[in-house]
Design goal:
It contains 4 helices and 22 strands. With 355 residues, the chain is mostly beta strands. The strands form 6 sheets. Strands 7, 8, 9, 13 and 14 form a 5-stranded antiparallel β-sheet that branches. A 4-stranded mixed β-sheet has the order 2-1-3-4, with helices on both faces. A 4-stranded mixed β-sheet has the order 10-6-5-15.
């Protein structure tokens, strides 16, 4: 079952804006139901993660591998790609924030503590919605970058099942935690543009699981997502998100998604290419510069720290290319705001500081 604190947190995430998020340790584990040491290793890992001092401070994701022997029937090529990212050569193998391998059986509190002391380099907020009847999952969220970034930074999204039982193998495990089932839009994540500290990147993904549930005979006949799926219970799905650069494998931060209402854009191409606010911070007036890829109407909403829209404007028939718009913010109190620039086929969020 989905943990209760995720359900309770949904009310706190009515807006996709998070301020001051701290470091969340990202724990990736490579394992298999046919690997004898994986059974005791996972018991040890789960015991450490279950310690109350770690509540809400980590994201855990497990990739079932295609060895030893016949491997785990829930193996996916996407899990194989993640194995390649780290050069994993044996299981069980655990990585924290993209770092060096840790034998899962000796994973300790100190491995989490070493992650917690590092400052987060990004804030991540994720909301997801599961339609069990349609077998779809929709995800949207924001990444606020806390440092300047170079090209190549990625946001990864993984759909996982909190607990599975049908992939029992030969190692004695009867229940498996946080099993990765699908990465969206794929194992390469979404490459974000170069960003400055304070910039916000909005993302949206939706996916439909096709066909009926099928348990592969082994990892060598893995699930064919074009015609079947391996979801045991759609009510038990979760989402993990993390920001990572492949050049160094460094993870900037991670976050679990929270259940909520999602309105995913039917057109995945964002028709608003970019937006910038200057001067920022400002006292009374600011210029919003927007780059659009086609003519469209654009809404500009200013949202306060409580998620309330306190100002709204409509720009009609904005031409493709660069457009500037003067915003009078002299009536706003000092503080931090989010400016949402949206159209029927696009959305970008920017932070605005009023001095």
């Amino acid at each position: 079952m989905i943990k209760n604190y995720f359900l309770l947190a949904a009310t706190l995430f009515s807006t996709l804006v998070t301020v001051g998020q701290t470091r969340t340790a990202f724990v990736e584990t490579f394992t298999s139901s046919t690997c004898p040491p994986c059974a005791s290793g996972n018991i040890n890992l789960e015991a450490v993660l279950a310690d109350p001092q770690n509540d809400d401070k980590y994201v855990s994701l497990k990739y079932q591998m295609n060895w030893p022997g016949s491997g785990d029937p829930y193996y996916t090529d996407e899990g194989g790609t993640r194995r390649g990212v780290y050069g994993v050569s044996g299981v069980p193998d655990t990585r924290v924030d993209g770092g060096a391998n840790i034998f899962t059986g000796t994973f300790a509190q100190s491995d989490l503590d070493a992650s917690y002391i590092d400052p987060a380099k990004a804030n991540i907020t994720v909301v997801y919605e599961v339609n069990e009847a349609a077998k779809t999952i929709s995800i949207e969220g924001d990444v606020e970058m806390l440092v300047n970034t170079n090209p190549g930074m990625r946001i990864y999204l993984a759909v996982f099942e909190y607990s599975t039982q049908n992939n029992v193998g030969s190692n004695g495990e009867t229940s498996f935690e946080h099993v990765m089932k699908k990465m969206l839009p794929g194992d390469g994540g979404v490459v974000m543009p170069p960003m400055s500290a304070g910039d916000i990147y909005h993302f949206e993904q939706t996916y439909q699981f096709n066909g009926n549930y099928t348990l592969p005979a082994s990892a060598q006949s893995q699930t064919n997502h074009a015609i079947e799926h391996s979801i045991e219970e759609f009510s038990d799905l979760g989402v993990a998100a993390w920001v990572q650069t492949l050049s160094t494998r460094e993870v900037y931060n991670a976050q679990y998604g929270v259940p909520g209402t999602v309105s995913v854009n039917s057109n995945p191409t964002n028709s608003i290419a970019s937006a910038k606010i200057y001067p920022n911070p400002t006292l009374s007036n600011a210029i919003l510069a927007i780059q659009t890829v086609k003519e469209q109407n654009i809404a500009i909403d200013i949202v306060d720290g409580l998620g309330q829209v306190i100002s709204s404007e409509q720009l009609l028939n904005v031409q493709a290319g660069r457009t500037t718009h003067k915003m009078n913010v002299s009536d706003l109190r000092k503080g931090l705001y989010t400016v949402r620039i949206s159209s029927p086929n696009g959305l970008i969020s920017k932070r605005l500081v009023i001095n």
